[in-house]
Amino acid sequence: MVSSRRKREIAEIADQTRRLAGISTYGINDIFDACQSLNYYYLRYPLMDGVLGAVIKRDAEYIIFSNSSVVYSREIFTLAHEIGHIRLGHLNSETQTMEDTNHTISSNDEKEVEANFFAACFLIPKDALLKIIEVFDIVNFSILDIVRLQSVFNTSFETTINRLNYLSIINEQKLELLKLQKKEQTISSILKSIGNDANLCIPSNVKAISMDYLKWIQFNYSNNLISKATAEKALGYLDISIDSIDIEPVNSDDDFDFDAFWEDDDE
Ligand SMILES: [Zn+2]
To answer: 61-74, pLDDT tens digit by residue?
Structure first.
C-alpha cells in the first residue's frame, strides 16, 4: 500500500519533473521531447513479445525503452511510468534494470504502484484537469467528453477515467458505466452522435483532433491507402479499436495508382 502522504509526495515530484522538462502545456504534447529535456535516452522499438518498457541505469545515465507496437497512448503511459521509476529513486547500484510487462505494471508491487501513480500525475496534473473541465464546460462526462480529455492529455480511455475517479470527479458508478459504454461504442456511432458536419474543436494551444481526422482514417483504411498498422496506430491514439471500423479494406489487386489519382485531380 502506498500511503496518502507518499502519494502527495509523488504528485509533487511529478510536478517538479514537468517543470524540469520545461512542460508548460496542460497535456504533454511530446513525451519523447520531455525525455530528452530530462537528459534520458530513449529507444522505441516494435516488439511482439509482452515487454512494454524498461529502464536501465548506467552510472549517472538512464536509458528508457518502450515497445512501439502497442497503441500509442499505452506507449506514452509506459514512458511516463519508466520516468517515474527514475524520478522516484527506484534504480540504484543494486537495481540497475527494471523491465515492465502487463504483469508487472498491474501488480501490487509498491514500486510499480508508485510508478503508475507518478505516471497518472505526470500526464494528467490535477490543476490542469480541473482547468480543462472548466474550459470545456464538461458536466456530464459523456464518452465524447472523455475523448476530448484524452486528446488534451494524450492518455488512454482507462487512464483518463481512472484519474477522474481517483480525484473524485466521477464516482464509482459513473466509472463502471463509462467502461460499459466504451465497449459498445464504435467509430460510426461516435460520428453519428456528433453529427456528420460537426468538428470536435479544441483550443489550438493544446493538441487538436477533429472529426475529419477520424473520417480520414476510415476513408484511407477502407480504400487500402494506409496499412492496418498505421490505421491501428492512428486510432489507438483515440483508444478506438480497428475492429470497430465497419468497412474492411478492399483488396489492392486492382492496381489503384494513388499518385495518378492526385495528378488527375490537378487538371
Ligand atoms: Zn515498472
So the answer is: 888 888 887 878 88
Q: Which residue has the higher pLDDT, 201 or 83?
A: 83
Residue 205 is predicted with a pLDDT of: 24
What is the distance in A from the centroid of ligand 1 to the CA of 114?
9
CA of 158 from ligand 1 middle (Å) equals: 18
- Give domain 4-123's CATH number out of 3.30.565, 1.10.10, 1.10.1060, 2.30.29: 1.10.10
Q: How far, in Å, CA of 54 to CA of 134, rounded? A: 36
Other beta carbons less than 10 A from residue 39's beta carbon: 11
* Strand, coil or helix: 262: helix
> Which residues keep their CB under 5 angstroms from ion ligand 1?
100, 112, 115
Q: How far apart are CA 240 and CA 22, in angstroms?
A: 31
pLDDT 10s digits, 99-128: 999 899 989 999 999 999 999 999 999 999
Those residues whose C-beta lies under 8 Å from the C-beta of residue 48, and which sit 6 or more positions away, are 69
* Domain ranges for the chain: 4-123, 124-184, 200-267
